[in-house]
Specification:
The structure is a homotrimer. Chain A is α+β, with helices and mostly antiparallel strands. The first copy, chain A, contains four helices and eight strands. Chain A starts with a strand and ends with a strand.
Chain lengths: ~140, ~140, ~140
């Protein structure tokens, strides 16, 4: 059993940008040579999240619409009042959806469904360069 | 340290069906013979989620009511417009709640609270046969 | 590769109390002596959650405001009708946000962002003594 840690670099547009990172995670996994175990994708930051979704333009829009309704951009946030960052909504969304995802892999391949992709959501109010941590525990 | 992967099969009614799968997860864990480590429950699909809750009919209803309010069934979704699946709400709910849960176990038993059960939520708009992945890392 | 399990004890005020537990988790990690792997923080109970956030008073207030809006305290819950606990909202919040968090660590240090803390949220309607499980898998 071994632990292998990798990073993947992303350029995002912010504003609830939804990026399909499945291939980059799979490549990081292949690079470790491990066959069975778990992959963790972790966001080292407080304005993004990682989850899975059927990645197609309709759901990308639906996810943004839902988050705009649940944690709106234009309402007052104490964070913005104190720090004038203008990204209070991004922090709240990230805390609610979480920074971490774990996926099993078997014989070198993640056990994702056919219509299930790993996505990174960047909630910040500007474009960002991001580095996600990919950690693999397995044999 | 070893990795063991199992699956559990479920028949659901869809429409935010909430199923207590604690016993099936515990049985899969016992089957591995491992004593200390983590159990991961993973949903290979994009219209279901796994979490924990005190499993009793009141909270089962409350969870459905909350999800109907937060991510309603009857509003327009671009996913439905494009693919005519009618399950856009199910995809959004699954992405928000996530497909994965990790639970520690010690001396062969998960460290769940007394009133805490592992549940699978099927958000799809029809009954489904599901296969969840149970992966155990431990010694 | 080894598995080490610890607990941390907390005293909370309930009512969506947000506690920064980063240092306690880091201390539990140091206590194991492990250098690379994953840390899991698990809530053995059904009225609390664990996530990450930039821990500052503004966001603490914003998180409470968002949860009060999304899963309000004063509306009817079947759980309260059946069990008269008055904490139906706490159970629903916990199920939606989840009881578990996984964070990678490298050379003995968690890969958190600079402005990212691990927080425990106690949604219950009273002050509580809590014991969280910290499990470390690594080498």
């Amino acid at each position: 059993m071994a632990v292998e840690t990798r990073t993947i670099a992303l350029r995002t547009r912010g504003h609830c940008d939804v990026l399909d990172i499945t291939e980059q995670v799979q490549n990081a996994l292949l690079d470790t040579g491990l066959q069975n175990g778990l992959v963790m994708v972790f966001v080292p930051g407080s304005t993004g999240s990682v989850t899975t979704v059927e990645y197609e333009p309709g759901l990308e829009a639906d996810l943004k619409t839902a988050l705009d309704r649940l944690v709106p951009v234009g309402i007052p946030y104490q964070h913005d009042h104190r720090w004038a960052d203008g990204n209070g909504h991004a922090h709240v969304r990230s805390a609610l959806m979480g920074p971490s995802l774990t996926v099993p892999f078997v014989r070198g391949k993640m056990t994702l469904g056919t219509w299930q992709q790993i996505v990174f959501l960047d909630f910040d109010n500007c474009s960002r360069s991001r580095e996600l941590v990919i950690q693999v525990l397995g044999e």
